[in-house]
Amino acid sequence: MTEEKGKPNPKDHTERGDITEEAVSRTDDPRVTSSDELPDDLLFELMAGLDRLDTVYAEESASPPLDVLARELKAAAEQSRLKKRKERRLFGVISLAVIALSILAAVTSPVLYWSLQGLVPVVALLAAIWRAGRRRRTEWK
Predict the structure, then answer these.
(1) Which residue intervals make up region (Disordered) (predicted)?
(2) Rounded (10°) angle between helices 66-108 and 110-140
């Protein structure tokens, strides 16, 4: 195609029947006779339609005033601060409960507590040795 839209370029076509001599219409409006210019009344209608769209969507696309935006930012910061404070308190309560239960288990039945503490690493070590042995056996096969 040439620089001008809508007009065919003869160099782009190989067959003679592909090239049309008539101008390509850019609109279906019967008031438009030329492909290069729109009549003034149609142009004014289009501009009026665009202005109506601008007024309809102006409120949605407009940014809020700075004082409103500042208030929203302060409110969001306050909510974030309160949420973090609540999470910290919850974490503190849960961690104190875990520590208290651990101390209670150590004080009330130290034999059971220390045997569990010693049994867990021994079981983990035995499981690791067993898996390593199985892996070597499958490699030999």
Answers:
(1) 1-37
(2) 100
pLDDT higher than 90, residue 95: yes
Q: Looking at residues 79-96, what average pLDDT do you find?
A: 97
Q: What distance in Å separates the CA atoms of residue 136 and residue 139, rounded to the nearest whole number?
A: 5
Torsion (CA) 103, 106, 108, 113 in degrees, nearest 10 = 140
Residues of the chain with pLDDT > 90, as a percent, come to 30
